Amino acid sequence: MNSADFRRGVRDVSPLLLGVAPFGLVAGIAAVNAGLDLSQALGMSVVVFAGASQLAALDLLGSDAPLSVVVVTAAVINLRMLMYSASIAPYLRDLSAKWKSGLAYLLTDQAYALSVASYRSERSFDRKAYYLGVAFTLWVVWQLTTAAGVVLGSGVPDAWGLEFAVPLVFLALLVPAMEDGPTTVAAIAGGGVAVAGAGLPLNLGLLVGATVGIVVGLAAETRMDVEVSDGH
């Protein structure tokens, strides 16, 4: 494995850690508020390792929602990982099944966005090493900050404004990804619906927004392909 490319991955992800760290603190604090102890919170963080679905699940647990609703909500939110996997798989097809499984566990929004952008722009570098530099760094920071959030609990002052960490992290990833018409339309439609449905029970606004974004984006891409094939 190329250590230089690994270090490059660490370097490229470092700016995003400014948003991921408070995101992890929020997840840890949310775990305490949901009634989890340190071992339970860390166990969930290690096994699930998915910020958005962790926060949604913790919110539901804190609201005494049925376990089936918690699991389904977390799974639906993480369905985007299937699309990420399908998109990044061609770049890593030469790796063994063991390595692919390990890298799949480390897959996150940030790891996907940075790695795919790098893969598309360059050909001659160690893709596995770069991905690990990005993804493993994110994993370590997430676990440490989640643990810190659990230990600090509700003692973190509201003035710190940690709740803004979550949207800021996703905005930092969303804006560069809006590189064409379909992705831009999908982002606007999905984001708008999610915001409008923020008050729906069981975090359904997020699920509906994600679904609308995917459908609108696919429709826009299909229309664009048809226009291109027709010579418009």
Automatic annotation (TrEMBL):
Matches recorded under Pfam families: AzlC (PF03591)
Name the UniProt record assigns to this protein: AzlC family ABC transporter permease
CC annotations in GO: plasma membrane
PANTHER family for the chain: INNER MEMBRANE PROTEIN YGAZ (PTHR34979:SF1)
Transmembrane segments: 16-34, 129-153, 185-218
Source organism of the structure: Halorientalis brevis
Taxonomic lineage: Archaea, Methanobacteriati, Methanobacteriota, Stenosarchaea group, Halobacteria
Record carries keyword Heme: no
Alphabetical UniProt keywords: Cell membrane, Membrane, Transmembrane, Transmembrane helix, Transport
Location(s) in or outside the cell: Cell membrane
Membrane topology: Multi-pass membrane protein
Family: Belongs to the AzlC family.
